[in-house]
Amino acid sequence: MNFDDLYWNDSVIRKIVIDRSTAGKKDSVVVEVDWYDVGLGIIIFEDVYCLKLSMNFDVVAHESISDAYILSADQLKELNFNFQILNLIIDQALTCYVIKTASTGSEIFIISKTWKLKSI
Q1: Hey, where are the domains in the chain?
Q2: In terms of C-beta density within 10 A (0-12 exposed, 13-18 middle, 19 or more buried), how is residue 65 classed?
Q3: Model confidence over 13-24: pLDDT tens digits?
Q4: What is the pTM of this model?
């Protein structure tokens, strides 16, 4: 399955877990999502190199997703992302995944080698 093909709009983020139990060897980010079309599932981002969260709280509402997509290295340059991170993306064949929410206007940037989708 392609990341961009998932049914993001109106799906809800229920939980985000950062796993650095084997720091530098197997860093991962797990996002539990209540998918609008199929129910609960998790996305596991593996070999994570960078995680940037800009999340707003104190809103009494589910964290519904408005959009999610993959950014190119050129698009990251426009966002003034750290230069070292840009070099890593190019050198290590990394991908930048972006998840934006409607409820709180939050943005999540995850730069990793791979991702996989699992049902709960």
Answers
A1: 3-119
A2: buried
A3: 999 999 999 988
A4: 0.87
